[in-house]
Design brief:
The complex is a heterotrimer of chains A (261), B (252) and C (303). Chain A is an all-alpha fold. Chain A contains twelve helices and no strands. The chains are: A mainly alpha (261), B alpha/beta (252), C mainly alpha (303).
Chain lengths: 261, 252, 303
């Protein structure tokens, strides 16, 4: 990519980041987390204080839920408002190709989501550091890296959906798919085995092509102080994330190319 | 030199022929007014000139190049009809975005932005978010982004919509200033009075076809509402259209 | 005062009025309210699902006990682990806790099993399935247990389980064991069990556990014996019914053991013999029955 292309992508990416922070979504999310977690941190079951893993688990669950909300929220709003508000026209009238436009929008959504994630993880690291005296363990860094991989997939899915669906339909479909795969992804083959041929094919197809976001979920290891996984496994999972996102972006590019304004 | 050439351009959306065999040229340095009722095909023509989609038949070129290629749009500045720009940006950030899309350097964007913001009269609202702008202010922001990269061809879609009388005068002056600097301006409008005041040539579109084009000087006669009468006649809203045309000595 | 402020004041007044009326209604119409008396919000909202949710919460505690791993085929639960790691697992006079000898004999589970075989733990083969292979590398299912000082981590789940449903006896049992044995807070364990017994008057296991804690940790046999008596009676009543379970039989046997042991302390050999005979009729080969027989053999005066 030449210097012009880099400037174009940077300009587009900056738009999404600026919008996220100007909308104050992140502040609302932090307030919600604080409201939920603070009472739990002060709680002592049966008058005995010292339990902390349940707070850690809930904190990480909130990080995941809100990062999903932010990631999908930002990516699902990439294109529909541009069409509604007619800002797509001055954008496309500039000397920028549709592919560059798509790449810039995607990088913007990813940058916005990852910047919010950094804040979440810093806050979490401070929380466990202050409560347990363990500062920035290696497993937490790994969990962050894989969580970024999760957002790579989420924003690509959201962006692809934003070109073919309304924002609400896109959000609902993506959220259902991602949460379904997160909790039941690995059980699909067992479910498929008990189905009729058509149902079995559908479930196996979903298992094959659905986004296996459970690969990015290291919450259990972080909460229960397990050692880090091998960095080769981490790399393999990130390669999967990038590959999956690339496929989504290719489909998005095809849809965008055919789009008439 | 012809900046824009349309030759037999046709575009249909299903059974509706939005543009039907349109042949038109725009010469360098002139101001061409593109007139017609709603649904005449003005915006469709403009979108094809900007490379949003290709015509079904015929050919078109801008500065001798296919406008679907990104590089061909480097010399085009476009202001859409009533765009609701990003509500969470201010006008400086908006211009920074579009400047980046044009591949401009940051220092250049900064310099030109300040000059344009002052030129369109938005210096007092520079720090305000666009969601707090009135329609007229958004139009001015639109003009500023169209002029940011100093284009040679300005395409303006209904530029006078939403402007108060003072703003109209300012915009008119700006367009004439651009012309004096050798720029070519092509704008669509419903405001016949504005077209009569500033256009060198006018083209009237009806149901996707060009029904009349000529210079404003050609219609100068008694001067009062000549363009309006021709407009109405060409669109079939008066009985003595041929008589009027003959009287004015214009081509159709 | 302008119109808007007046409207706000009226709205606030309306809210306060409704809230106050909501509090007064049950007092004013006591006994004539449409809801069933004794019901609370949780019961209204969750209904029959309360017990299921409560059980899920105890499963969560088990998951925490196994280091965040689910669906492991592990015979050792929180209760037996709490027994094994407790330094007070032996009762007075060196008598091993009833029926718990096998936990000591099975060895120390503190280190857990270094079993990195993900397939064995998850029960599903990863062969030929790339996604499962990746998942098994990311979510290794190593079998492990919490150490005694970490057992506090399971407490919040037992607390939640007991709040959601007072009918979940396992929550009370396991919670009390963790409090009493792992965290060395027997008085808190006793309080929890008292609440459990109030909510589950027919459950013999809670009475039995109360007796064990009072005997082994508080060394208060006078307070412990009535609880063993109650447990024994409830277990016998349950065994007469249609739904006999192995757990009820074991509670009956174990409470018989402790009652026999306490009777032996007083020299009441007839009572000891009666309990031994009862155990013999219930489960002749059970380790508890052998323990009761050995009570009879030790220092027994000749009839």
């Amino acid at each position: 990519m030449n210097i012009v292309g880099y400037r174009q992508v940077r300009a587009l990416a900056g738009l999404s980041v600026l919008e996220l922070y100007r909308r104050k979504d992140l502040i609302v999310v932090f307030l919600l987390c604080a409201i939920i977690l603070l009472p739990l941190m002060l709680f002592s079951p049966f008058g005995v204080s010292g339990a902390s893993r349940y707070v850690d688990e809930l904190a990480l669950l909130l990080v995941w839920v809100f990062s999903l909300v932010i990631g999908l929220g930002v990516s699902a709003r990439l294109f529909p408002p541009e069409f509604e508000n007619r800002t797509i026209y001055p954008m496309l009238s500039k000397p920028v190709g549709r592919g560059t436009l798509l790449a810039g929008k995607y990088m913007g959504a990813l940058a916005a989501s990852v910047s919010a994630l950094v804040v979440f993880y810093l806050a979490y690291a401070l929380l466990i550091g202050m409560r347990q005296g363990v500062w920035f363990p290696g497993i937490l860094l790994q969990a962050f890296v894989l969580h970024v991989g999760f957002l790579v997939v989420v924003t690509a899915l959201g962006l692809a959906g934003s070109l073919v669906m309304t924002p609400s339909a896109n959000l609902t479909l993506c959220a259902l798919t991602l949460l379904g795969m997160l909790f039941y992804g690995q059980r699909l083959p067992e479910l498929a085995a008990s189905q009729q041929p058509f149902g079995r094919c559908m479930l196996l197809a979903l298992y094959a092509v659905g986004p296996h976001v459970e690969f990015f979920d290291l919450r259990q290891r972080v909460v229960h102080e397990w050692p880090a996984i091998g960095w080769d496994v981490c790399l393999a999972v990130m390669v999967y994330a990038v590959g999956y996102a690339a496929v989504c972006l290719m489909l998005a590019a095809l849809a965008f190319r055919k789009k008439k304004f | 030199m012809d900046v824009v050439k349309l030759d037999g351009v046709t575009k249909a959306f299903g059974s509706v022929h939005a543009v039907d065999g349109l042949t038109l040229t725009i010469r360098q340095g002139e101001i061409l007014g593109f007139l017609g009722t709603n649904g005449a095909g003005k915006t469709t023509t403009i979108k094809m000139l900007l490379g949003f989609f290709r015509p079904d038949a015929g050919s078109l070129s801008v500065f001798g190049a296919d406008p679907c290629e990104p590089d061909a749009r480097r010399k085009i500045g476009y202001m859409p009809e009533m765009a609701y720009y990003y509500p969470y940006l201010n006008v400086r950030e908006l211009l920074s975005l579009y400047g980046g899309l044009c591949g401009m350097e940051k220092s250049e964007i900064r310099t030109r932005s300040e000059a344009l913001i002052a030129r369109v009269g938005l210096e007092d609202a520079g720090a305000r978010l666009l969601k707090h702008y009135s329609k007229g202010m958004l139009q001015r922001a639109g003009i500023a982004q169209a002029l940011l990269h100093d284009p040679d061809l300005l395409i303006l879609d209904e530029p006078f919509t939403g402007l108060d009388p003072l703003a109209r005068i300012q915009l008119r002056d700006l367009i004439l200033e651009m012309k004096s600097r050798g720029k070519t301006i092509f704008f669509s409008s419903h405001e016949l009075s504005e077209a009569e005041l500033i256009c060198d040539r006018v083209a009237i579109l009806k149901q996707g076809s060009l029904v009349w084009s000529g210079t404003v000087g050609d219609v100068a006669g008694d001067g009062e509402r000549n363009l309006e009468r021709i407009f109405l006649k060409m669109l079939g809203h008066a009985s003595d259209a041929p008589a009027v045309a003959a009287e004015s000595g214009v081509r159709s | 005062m302008n119109k808007q402020r007046l409207q706000t004041c009226w709205s606030l007044f309306g809210v306060v009025l409704v809230a106050a009326w909501g509090q007064l209604l049950p007092v004013r119409f006591n006994g004539r309210m449409p809801q069933a008396s004794g019901g609370d919000v949780l019961a209204l909202v969750l209904g029959e699902a309360r017990l299921e949710i409560s059980r899920s919460l105890t499963e969560k505690a088990d998951e925490y006990f196994h280091g965040g791993v689910r669906d492991l085929h592990c015979d050792e639960g929180i209760v037996s682990h709490a027994h094994a790691v407790s330094s007070k697992g032996l009762g007075t006079n060196g008598v091993a806790r009833a029926g718990m000898g096998h936990a000591d004999r099975d060895g120390d589970h503190d280190e857990g099993h270094d079993d990195h075989d993900a397939e064995h733990a998850s029960g599903v083969s990863a062969r030929g399935d790339l996604w499962r292979w990746i998942d098994s590398r990311v979510h290794e299912q190593t079998h492990r247990h919490l150490k005694s000082d970490q057992m506090i981590e399971v407490l919040p789940w037992f607390w939640a389980a007991s709040r959601v449903s007072g009918k979940n006896t396992e929550a009370y049992e396991s919670g009390a064991y963790v409090l009493a044995y792992a965290l060395d807070k027997p008085e808190e364990g006793v309080k929890l069990l008292e609440e459990g017994v109030r909510n589950n008057p027919a459950a013999p296991s809670l009475d039995f556990m109360m007796g064990e804690i009072l005997l082994h940790l508080e060394h208060d046999s006078a307070r412990a014996e009535p609880w063993f008596t109650s447990a024994h009676a409830k277990a016998r009543a349950a065994l007469q019914g249609a739904k006999r379970t192995d757990e009820q039989k074991m509670v009956c046997l174990r409470s018989a053991f402790y009652l026999g042991y306490l009777a032996k302390q007083r020299g009441d050999w007839a009572r000891v013999r009666a309990f031994a005979d009862e155990a013999e009729s219930l489960a002749p080969e059970n380790v508890v029955t052998h323990d009761l027989r050995s009570l009879l053999k030790a220092d027994q005066p000749k009839p």
